[in-house]
Design brief:
The chain is of the alpha+beta class. About 35% of the residues lie in helices and about 25% in strands. It has helices spanning about 10-15, 20-30, 45-50, 60-65, 90-95, 110-115, 135-145; strands at about 5-10, 35-40, 80-85, 115, 125, 125-130. A 4-stranded antiparallel sheet has the order 2-3-1-6. A two-stranded antiparallel sheet has the order 4-5. The chain is globular, with a radius of gyration of 14 Å. The model has no long low-confidence stretch (mean pLDDT about 95). Bound molecules: uridine-5'-diphosphate and magnesium ion (MG).
């Protein structure tokens, strides 16, 4: 099986609800290796580029506000971005994360344990995880410079 890299973002609800440590604990338990980590200010441009495939969705504008921390009072729009590496890393992290809709996410997954749907219909699901190899390559390169990732 191929060694893969995948991008993870601890979303603003995760940070605001003090779930950063718990989330990393579950990622570590997967046996994958953390090879990059940084706090980064999510500019409007970065948010729109990251989620550009969803730009025609009705929830898109709120998604941009959400990932920039505007619903959770996140100072300077900062979030924790991580890269994990290992065999089958993309699917492994998606499995640990759980389904997109927190209501549908299995018990014991990060989203199943900690996610919620707001009364406005926003999915607050604690974590972003790349969904396939093409997305993972694009997203890792978007959020990290080469020399910020361990060889
Ligand atoms: N999202 C939402 N409502 C939806 C679908 C998605 O609020 O009906 C948000 C949610 O935060 C999700 C993000 O948009 O994580 C990106 O959606 P995607 O379909 O890529 O899901 P993911 O890859 O995060 O599981
Ligand atoms: Mg996605």
């Amino acid at each position: 099986m191929a060694i893969e890299q995948t991008l993870i973002l601890i979303k603003p609800d995760g940070a605001a609800r003090r779930l950063t440590g718990l989330t990393i604990d579950r990622l570590d338990a997967s046996g994958l290796e953390m090879v990059a980590a940084k706090m980064i200010s999510v500019t409007e441009a970065l948010a729109r580029e990251h989620y550009k495939a969803l730009s025609d969705k009705p929830f898109f504008e709120n998604l941009i506000k959400y990932i920039r921390g505007e619903f959770h009072g996140i100072k300077d729009h900062r979030i924790l971005a991580l890269v994990y590496r290992g065999e089958n890393a993309i699917k492994t992290v998606r499995a640990v994360a759980g389904a997109t809709n927190p209501e549908a996410a299995a018990a014991g997954t990060i989203r199943g344990s900690f996610g919620r749907i707001t009364t406005a219909g926003q999915f607050e699901n604690v974590i972003h995880a790349s969904s396939d190899p093409a997305d993972a390559a694009r997203e890792v390169a978007l959020w990290f410079k080469k020399d910020e990732i361990l060889p």
